[in-house]
Records
---
Amino acid sequence: MAEPQGRARGRPTPNRAPAPRPPSNQHRPSAEAPPLYAEAAGLGGPVMAAEGGAEPSGGAGLAPVPSLSLVEGSTGRAARVGDPGDLVALARQVQQADDFIRANACNKLTVIAEQIRHLQEQARKVLDEANRDADLHHVACNLVKKPGNIYYMYRRESGQRYFSILSPKEWGTSPHEFLGAYKLQHDMSWTPLEDLERRDAEINILEKLLSRQAALPPCTEPNFQGLTK
């Protein structure tokens, strides 16, 4: 049979006086006194309780706080927040920052996507022009083609295409079908006669830029002054 508590094995327990009772006008400390600090769920640190010692009600007046972290002090515990509403402001600020970052990233990606589409169009144009220039260089011609000259292309009844230096006006009544006129550039590319004015203007601007830059002293930035005048 187990011995009663408070009595040592083999020795009698001396009689002890009962503990004094507190006066009736004093309140005994309650075992269920509210803690000074209520742990904030998911925040990694304590939050100061509301005035009067009562714990803040779960979710009452507090919005969800996603992924909100508080700075830990030297004692290893998170910094205390005096007002529970500060947590809502902190969470709202974090959410607003995430929204701004996402919007900025979307704007930059939109610009990049537009540039990619433009580059794709430019690449397609370059390939088309390269195929056209290669095809024109294989057209029959009894003359040595010189850059800077305009050549007129005709097609015989047999389907053969050939270049001539005579225009339809100079020919008078040409027995062959006229297909078009092209100018041979110095880079051995061909420019259609309808695009010749625009192409010559671009070449003039580039030549003017090169001559102006060659005459200027060395500088860290290019000088485009006067190119459009």
---
Amino acid sequence: ILLHLLNVWLCYLLARRLFQSESAGLAAAFLFAINTVGYEAVYWIAASATLMGAAFAQTAVILT
């Protein structure tokens, strides 16, 4: 769950930077948080690499 929360926060930062709008960042993070497509990655411990990969990829995009 903590990795998912980290990805939600990174999604917020990325969307806020991309759209230059606080509300757009919040909307993107909210939609990412409640999206049920990738629920296996949140609840299945073996899929934690997916969450870590997403976190590293988002961090790399934010830092560039």
